[in-house]
Amino acid sequence: GPEVAGATYSALDGDVNPLRLLAALRGAVTALGGRIETGARVNRVSPVSGGGFDLALDGGGMRRAGRVVLCAGLGSAKLAEQLGFHTRVRPQRGEMLITEKIRDRLPVLSSTIRQVNEGGIQIGGTKADAGFDDHESLQIMSDLARHAVAVFPALADLRVVRAWGSLRVMTPDGYPVYARAPEHPGAFLVTCHSGVTLAPMHATALADWIEGKAEAPDLEMFDDTRFALSDAA
């Protein structure tokens, strides 16, 4: 539109359908011999004498593991304290719109507006500190729609069919946390936003680091002790 001063383009840009990505991830875990348990809420992680960890579940269940990776999103902080981590996380609400399904109309992607493979136009990009309230708001939905039409006037005739809010997992400085517990070998903490964007690194360098196959000094720069140091300063 005439109010847009300019744009950037990269032929390497792409996007993924999160529902299909989740299905593929579950299939890959199962194919590699992993087991996914749903409804198994961990309320305590306890180091075991001689190595390993006991995981206490709501309802009285128990699991034992030789290695533990805490990646429970906004629920990570409580469990992390039990293993000596110092991380803090907070929710940040984002809101999204999706339009009715249409034929191809947006041949390019942007960071906040894209046409998904089913045909709808997905519009987002908001950030709000609203605690754990994940409800969408009329004002923000209206602002999103106006912004989308300003950037892509060809969207003006479309109907919005769904809107929702969701909570991002944010650290105090907005960067990920990759940490290992100094007093409990085999315990790791992984907390981040932009998990899809970071997935290639998580599947390679991060996985090798957790398995002890390789050192990763660049990852260790994201240790959660940086928050304790900033508090002391």
The coarse silhouette is elongated
- Return the structural class: alpha+beta
What is the overall pLDDT average?
Answer: 91
* C-alpha Rg (nearest Å): 21 Å
Pfam families: DAO
Domain FAD dependent oxidoreductase: 3-209
Protein name: FAD-binding oxidoreductase
GO molecular function, one term: oxidoreductase activity
Characterize the structure shown:
There is one protein chain. The chain has helices spanning 18-31, 76-81, 138-151, 195-210, 217-220, 225-232; strands at residues 42-47, 53-57, 62-65, 68-70, 90-99, 113-115, 121-123, 160-170, 177-180, 187-191. With 233 residues, the chain is an alpha+beta fold. Strands 6-7-5-8 form a four-stranded antiparallel β-sheet, covered by helices on one side. The longest helix is centred in the last third of the chain and has 16 residues, at 195-210.
Structural features:
233 residues, FAD/NAD(P)-binding domain, D-Amino Acid Oxidase, Chain A, domain 2, four-stranded antiparallel sheet, three-stranded antiparallel sheet, 27% helix, elongated
